[in-house]
Structures are given as C-alpha cells and as structure tokens.
Amino acid sequence: MQLSEKEYKVMYIRSTDLEIPRWAYQRPLNVKRVKQIAKDFNERIANEPKVSLRNGHYYVFDGQHTIAARIHRNGGKPIAVLCKVYTGLTESDEATLFAEQNGYSAELTAGIKIRARIYAGDPIACGFLKATESTGIRLDYGQQLGKKRMGCIATAFGEYRRIGQEKYREALNILLDAWNGDPDSLRAETVLGMCRFVDLYEGEYDRNRLVRRLKGYDPVRIFREGRSMGGDMPGYKKYLYQVWSMYNGSSVKAALPIKF
Fold first, then answer.
1. Least confident of 22-31, 142-151, 164-173, 182-191
2. N or C: more exposed end of the chain, with fewer CB within 10 A?
3. Rounded to whole angstroms, how far apart are CA atoms 109 and 117?
4. What is the C-alpha end-to-end distance of the chain, expressed in Å?
C-alpha cells in the first residue's frame, strides 16, 4: 500500500492528543532510543510523524519515538508536534503502513512486522499464525527463547511460504513430539533444518524413526554442530545435514540418501 503525497495535511497537533496503538500493532517505546534521538535531534532533517485521523482520534502509525524525543527535549511537558495527517485510512490500513515503514525509522523486527500484518488481516500472515498456533506453539514477537515459543519468526515465516502449510505444520509437530517445545528445538537453525528435511524427504522418511532418533539427542546439537561446520557446507544445508545424520545414525537399511 502506497501513500500519495496529496493524501495528507501537515499540521501541528498537541502531543497529548496523539495516540500510539501499542495494544494493537505498535512496538513498545524504547526509552534508550528516545534519549539518543533527543541527544542528536536536528529539526531541519527530522521526519514528521505520520498520523491517521480516524473517528476523531489521531493515531500515530509512524514516528512514536520522534514524538517522545521532542517531548523529552521539552522537559517531559506536552508540546505541539508538526505531523503529516492522513484521512480515510482504516485501522487495517494503519497497521499495514506501520509494517511497511522505512527510511529514518528504526528497522522493525520480523516479529513486529508479522504482528502488524496479522492485525491488518494479511491472509498469508494470518495463515502462518494459524498454522503455527495449531501445533501448540506460540509466536513470540519479542523474539525470545522459551518453551513452545517461536522467536525465529522471520525464518519460520520464510519456510511456511516456501514449503506450504502442511509440511510446515508437520515439521513443527515433529519437533514437538521429539523435544516437547524445548527452547533449543525452536531455534532458527533447528526449524530451518527440520523444514528442509521434511520438504526434501517427503514420503521417504519414517516419522516414528525420526522422532525416536531425535529424542536421543539434545536439540542444541543442530545449532552447535551446524555452526561448527563453517563454510564447509553453506547456508541451510549444514542444519539439514544434522537432521539427516541424526535420522540415519549407523543404519544401512533405514538410511536415506544424501540429496543436498
């Protein structure tokens, strides 16, 4: 979604009248970033916050830290802020535009972008959320490790789009059956390795054998052993290799051929 330069008015709005929809899609205020912006603030190059006038309210969808920095420079007191005010936007439009913001704004994390797209009703993002949560795993938008919490949202979303819902869910369910949501089993490298294995060896692997074999290892091994391979096997292949080798073990009869 693109905003036309003709769709807004530049006007001063009292900071007390500006609303930040953190309950919906906005990220938490980063006080450290606010202080840094305030310290280096230059009014001549500062971007005007983007605001949506909807139902008599001014909702900020880009620029909350700039607003907070201006207030900080004013001794914490309310201040009139020059804003770009758009009309005719829905709440879904605002969330979409927030996810697409770029330029001077701090780069959004994958988790925050996905949360905004979900809130906006993006069908692919919503499908990703539904597929993930149907396995019992929750998306962690703060991207922290935790039991049955998915912090590697960018990796997981990329694999969901690449291999499709069914194989994505199968990969997550295998990880859950093997390691019961252990945080190390939901690292980006582990999720990547398992998704690629399920995709590449679909219809060839024995699921019961795979789960049984995985249970005999600490899930962090996929991350550690993969990283230790360095450039010997680039990209995702080093993590796929760990899953493949765990599955094969020393068996000749049940071993899968290397196809990567």
1. 22-31
2. N
3. 12
4. 39
Going by pLDDT thresholds of 50, 70 and 90, the confidence category of residue 75 is very high
Please report where in the chains the tokens 């291999």 appear, as a residue: 163
Q: What is the 3-state secondary structure (H, E, C) of 99-148?
A: HHCCCCCCCCCHHHHHHHHHHCCCHHHHHHHHHHHCCCCEECCCCCCECC
Tokens describing residue 96: 């979409």
pLDDT at 72 over 60: yes
Mean pLDDT, range 13-23, rounded to an integer:
91
Listed residue (119, 121, 124) closest to 162, CA to CA: 124
CA-to-CA dists, residue 217 to 145, 220, 245, angstroms: 19, 8, 11
Residue type, 131: A
CA dist list (Å): 109 to 101, 184, 186, 198: 12, 21, 18, 27
What's the gap between Cα 47 and its chain centre? 25
Could you tell me which residue, 129 or 31, shows the higher pLDDT? Answer: 129
- pLDDT per position as a tens digit, 84-119: 999 999 988 988 888 876 544 555 677 778 888 888
pLDDT at 79: 94
For residue 83, list its beta bridge partners.
11
